[in-house]
Structure formats: C-alpha cells, structure tokens
Amino acid sequence: MIRHLYLVGAMGSGKTSVGRLVAQRLQLPFYDLDQQIEQATGETIANLFAQQGEQAFRELECEMLTQTIFVPRSVIATGGGVVLNERNRRLMRHRGWVIYLRASPETLWRRLQHTTDRPLLRTESPYETLLAIAQQREPLYQEADWVIETDALRPEEVADAIVRAFKPTPDAPLIISVLPNQPHEYPVQVAPGVMTSAVQAIRQRTQPTRVAILTHPKLRGYADPLLAGFTQNGVPAHLITLPSGERVKSLRAAERLYAQLLEAGCDRSSLLVIVGGGVLGDLGGFVAATYMRGIPYVQIPTTLLAQVDSSVGGKVAVDLPQGKNLVGAFHQPLMTLVDPETLRTLPLRHWRNGFAEMLKYGAALQVGLWRRLQTMLGQGVLGARRVRKAPDYWTLPIARCISLKAQVVSDDERDLSGRRALLNFGHTVGHAIEAALGYQDWLHGEAIAAGMVAEAEIGRTLGVTPPEVADELRETIAQAGLPTRLPAGVDADTLLTHMRHDKKRAGDSLSIVLLEAIGNARLIPNIPTEAIREALTRCATS
Ligand SMILES: NC(=O)c1ccc[n+]([C@@H]2O[C@H](COP(=O)([O-])OP(=O)(O)OC[C@H]3O[C@@H](n4cnc5c(N)ncnc54)[C@H](O)[C@@H]3O)[C@@H](O)[C@H]2O)c1
To answer: What are the CA-CA distances from residue 490 to residues 443, 461, 541 (Å)?
Structure first.
C-alpha cells in the first residue's frame, strides 16, 4: 500500500542531490518533480513562473504529483512549495512516507544567495523573502512522517539518516536522542529486529559486571536470548520473572524485586534490563531508581503503549491502594531499544490500547501525525478482528511518537514548565476513569481514549475546542475501536471526586489540557466545576 519516499523541504535543502544518493542506496528509481515538470512543458521552472505565474505553476505541480501514483516505488524529490496544497500533503501521505529535510534559513541563504534560478527569491530583499517563506511553510513541512535536521550534516550523512528512517535495521537503527546535551542524555534505538543485537548494543554503551533481566514468563522467548547473549560474553546474567497485570506495580512487588537483586549479587555496577510493557517498565524503573540509591537500567518495551510512551522519559512509579503512580521518581534509562517485531504477538486489544496514546500525541502536538494515524485507520491497520502487523508499516509512526515525546521531555524533564503537561491530554479524566473502575476492566489506553473525548467536550463547553475538532476526535477514536463514552455506571460526580485527588492537580482548582485545534493543546487553569460536570454528563453511557 505504502510505496514512495517523498522528500520535502525548502528550496536549497538538498532534496535533489540527497534524493539521488538515497535512491542509489535503496536501489529505487529517482524521480524529481521539478525536473518532470520541466521535461513535460519544455520550459524551466523560472520561465514557467515568469510566463504563467505561481498559481498556474502550482496547478501543474499538483498534476505532476498525482502522476506519481502510477510510477513504481521511487524516491521522489518535491518542489519547496508542494506542501502548500492540502491535497498534495494528503496524496503524499496516502502514497508513501514523507521526510522533511530541515535546514535553517541561515544555511539556506548560504546555499542560495548566489543562485539565479529561484523565481520566488527575485525580490528586492531576497533574504527577508526567504525568511518569510520559511516561516510560513515550517508547520506544513513539520507534518512530515520524519524530520531530519540537516544543518550540520554532509549530503552523505543526510542520505544515511533518510535510509535509517525509511528502512532501519539492527545494524543501522533509527536513533532518537532524549535530553540531548544534558547530563542524562540517552538514545532510543528503533528498528525491526533490534532485539537480536540488543546485547551488543547495550555493551557498546555500558560494561556491567552483572545483569538482571526482568520479564514476564510469557515473554521469555524475547528475554532468553538476552540471557544467553550476556552469559556467552562472560557477563553473569539472571532472569527474574513476574506475573502480568497492573497489580504487580506495587511496593510489595518492588520489595520482592530488591530481595531478588540482592540474592543475585547485584550491586551498583550491575544493570537491570526490562523486557515487557509499561507495568514492568514502571516497576523495574522504580526499583532501578531506588535499589542501592540507583542503578542503571535499559528499557526493551514489548507493547505498543510502552514503545511509544512509557519506556521514554524516565517517569517510573508504583501504585498505592489509594491511587496510581503515587510513589515514584524521575530516573532515565541508559538506553531504550524499540523492536516493532516484538509486537507481532501482542493481542488486538493491546494494539488499540497503544494506539490511543499515539492518537494523543497527534491530537495534542502534531496534526501531521494525527492525519497519518487516520490514514492508517482508513487502510485498515486495526481491523475488527485483525491487526496489520508488518513492522514496515508501524516503525516510522512509532518513532515519530517517540521523537515528539523526546522533544517535550528534553524541554521539560521534570514536568515543571507546563510543556510536559501537554502529554496529559485525556489523562485527567482518563486517570479518574481508571480510579473509578478500581484499575480493572479498562486498559490505560482505553481510559485515555474516553478521557480525550470527554476533555474535548469540556473544551467545547468552554468554547476552547471548536465543535468540529471535538467531533473529529470522537469519530477517529471510535474508528480505532476505542471507547468514546464513560464506562457504564460511572457518573460525572464520581469522576470529579477522583479528578480532585489526581496527583497532577495543583491546589483546589482543576487544570486540564484542552485542544484549540488538532495538534495544538494548551493547559487551561481554573476550569469551573460546572463546565466539567456538564461535559462529563454528555459523555455518560445512558
Ligand atoms: N511511565 C510512563 O511515562 C507511562 C506512560 C504511559 C503508561 N504508563 C503505565 O504503563 C502501564 C500500562 O502498560 P501496558 O499497556 O504496556 O501494560 P502491561 O505492561 O500490563 O502489558 C499488557 C499485557 O501485554 C502482555 N505483553 C507484553 N508484551 C507482549 C508481547 N510482545 N506479546 C504479547 N503479550 C505481551 C503483558 O504480559 C500484559 O499482559 C500502566 O501502568 C500505565 O500507568 C506509564
């Protein structure tokens, strides 16, 4: 279904030269949209602009882009203005992956100031024109599936980064840096099959004297090769298994784990490797944060939810009988290894569970991701009975979610500035739903899905969220097979009581992340209780 690799970016960002290199490396044909237009019309782009004007050129460009539907799988370099047309952006999303080669206006100017064949720069102050164009188009370019910062890279390095995004492998994974240039900087490596080279990847980063691997009995197929790999490399390794389920995220389980680590002889030079979903990631991370005042740990998430969310960002915690995540710490992993191949064994309900968090990133932070997820739903990735599990299909959207989270965490590691709070879209009501259900029956992502719908309704009531945005959100969540109404028997007042107990609450008033548009969320303080009650009542299951 998905075929091409479309390169977008400003004039001078290197789409054509880099595109050729990428096509060679991937052994795919190369197709340059501007060149095709020049060939088809027998005119240069500059002449077409001069003779027919920009509007006529854009129509021609749109027509030629539509022709790419019929060419075999290719690397396609587009013109700088192709993203201006919503139809073009939709077409590229439907027919391939879109990669944005980002260059700063300064870099672009350095490359372009002496050229004469760029019609849009034939103005009295071309640098200011370039700046204005870059500013106007930046949010449209950012809608791409992947963004590569090219300022400091040579063309070969940009090509390498594109190949890693398009076809990551265990030897050349996609790497996302969390907290770059900060004391706890670490990489998230994403590639189908990256599990197979996990021991090597971990040993390149650290040389532990001893390793403890934490997993569930049913995930031993993933954990056992690690155990063997460390042992073969002369590193004593121990397997610790725990049952599945949220109940394991407890102080009692943490205490048992401390005892098992002691018994295995683990000290501060030991490493904890966690192979599992968000429950083990949160519990294991909490134990790593506190055992002997903190030991390093590696996350190898095996659920979609853990891959896109909980294994990145360093929030680790256990639950108390009074509520979720009430005892915890910020403790960043040494690295996170994301292998979409491990999702093949995941049940459909847990795919949907993780998809809810993906939708959250799109809704709160990036409309391009939101549209990509809608496209995936339209292509039937989460069918009524069957998931399309091909890692080719999931790797880049998973990586995009991680990179969005990494940016937010890098800006606001400790949740202090309000930036990280945006990741809580859907969570104020979602956490209250989980608490009202006693953390049973509904999965985390299911509660967040209904929470997003409810918070969009709160936004609608307050006039913050446009009605069409709230409607689109609900329809998309329903299409993903996720709940859009509150659980039966849970009413607005019960939820309000739990919302007031949420640890993210500040003082007595309720602050909630609301949508102003898809991809644009804002933390709104002091929301009147009456508005919340009214909106929640509308979402109740009658
Ligand atoms: N720390 C954070 O930033 C953060 C963010 C979001 C959610 N969370 C937490 O994550 C937890 C939920 O995580 P989850 O949804 O991954 O649940 P989970 O860890 O309970 O995993 C869900 C189920 O899938 C099974 N499983 C795991 N990998 C599998 C695989 N590859 N194949 C087949 N089965 C597999 C598990 O054994 C379990 O039964 C919640 O406690 C939530 O609070 C934390």
So the answer is: 16, 20, 8
Give me the amino acid identity at 294. G
Question: C-alpha angle with apex 405: 403 to 406, nearest 5 degrees?
Answer: 60
| Contact call for residues 256 and 299 (beta carbons, < 8 A) | no
* Category of 71 on φ-ψ map: left (φ > 0), alpha (ψ -120 to 50) or beta: beta
Residue 280 alpha carbon, nearest atom of ligand 1:
19
278 Cα to the center of ligand 1, angstroms: 4
HSE value, Cβ hemisphere, 13 Å, CA-based, for 308 = 27
Probe target for ligand 1 pocket from 350, 357, 427, with the most ligand atoms within 8 Å of CB: 350
Which two three-digit tokens encode residue 527? 């929301």
pLDDT in tens, 291-339: 999 999 999 999 999 999 999 999 999 998 878 899 999 999 999 999 9
**Cβ atoms < 10 Å from Cβ of 202:** 24
Q: What spacing in Å lies between the alpha carbon of 160 and ligand 1's midpoint?
A: 33
- Domains of the chain by range and CATH? 4-166 (3.40.50.300), 174-346 (3.40.50.1970), 366-539 (1.20.1090.10)
Residue 273's alpha-carbon distances to 133, 197, 216, 224, in angstroms, are 47, 14, 12, 12
Q: What is the pLDDT of residues 209-231, one digit of tens each?
A: 999 999 999 999 999 999 999 99
Kindly provide the b/e burial profile for residues 417-450, where b requires at least 16 CB atoms within 10 angstroms of the residue's own CB: eebbbbbbbbbbbbbbbbbbeebeebbbbbbbbb
Distance CA 110, CA 89 (A): 28
